[in-house]
Amino acid sequence: MLNMIQAEMFKLRLNKSFWVILLTSLVLSAVMHYLAITEWWQVYNTPFDAAGLSEMNGLSMFMAPLFFNLMIGTLAAFYISTDFGPSGVIKNQIISGKNRKLIYFAKYIVYSAAAVVIAVLIPAVTGIILNIIMGNGGIFTFETITYLLGAYSLFSLQLLGYTAIISLLAIITEDSGKTIIFSILFTIVMYIVEKMPKSGIIERIYEYSIFQQFNQVLFPELGIESIMTGLAVGLITMTVLLFIGMIVFSKKEIK
């Protein structure tokens, strides 16, 4: 298993799309944080305001699924879906006798780790460094650092559930273009569901979805019940979707 993960990491390092997306995330993070710090771009009533970290409001854009999907959905398209193409990477892995479930699991682990780096670590670290450089280092107290670690841990857990969904889409479509299109459409549908009036079972289901948790886990002073809900929703979503992905990939005909 470790060898498969190492092989996937090597393949990721050679993937030009990964480096382009990584650089894009870095540049956008720096620009958005600079605009927020200098108040050229003002955002109000954010979780960061409530936590006393208004100078970190540049992170707000990166918290929206409609935005971060553009990066990690594209990464899935050019990292996972392209393996089904003429290069025959998937076919070669299967012919070599490796367990399909482990192949899928290794791809999910490496893809998800890359997604967390792109959508979570780079924006957060860039914001911290830029604030320190621009003389706002005093905002990072024990309390605010604790808030960032806790909130981003829960947020990353929801993101792992999201990458499980996108990974499943990638192996179903087997095409980079379709993966990008369907991931965007899926996110748009969930955004519409979030904004439209809901009642009964639909409201209940959405309340306990990762999309609702993306909005909830960043707010400071979460109660124990809210924290446990975030943990449960993220873990269950990730586990169920990962299991489904393994089953689908195991039964999939590889041409």
Automatic annotation (TrEMBL):
UniProt keyword annotation of Repeat present: no
Listed transmembrane segments: 20-41, 61-81, 108-133, 145-169, 176-193, 227-249
Superkingdom assignment: Bacteria
Keyword Transmembrane attributed: yes
This protein's UniProt keywords: Membrane, Transmembrane, Transmembrane helix
Stated name of the protein: ABC-2 type transport system permease protein
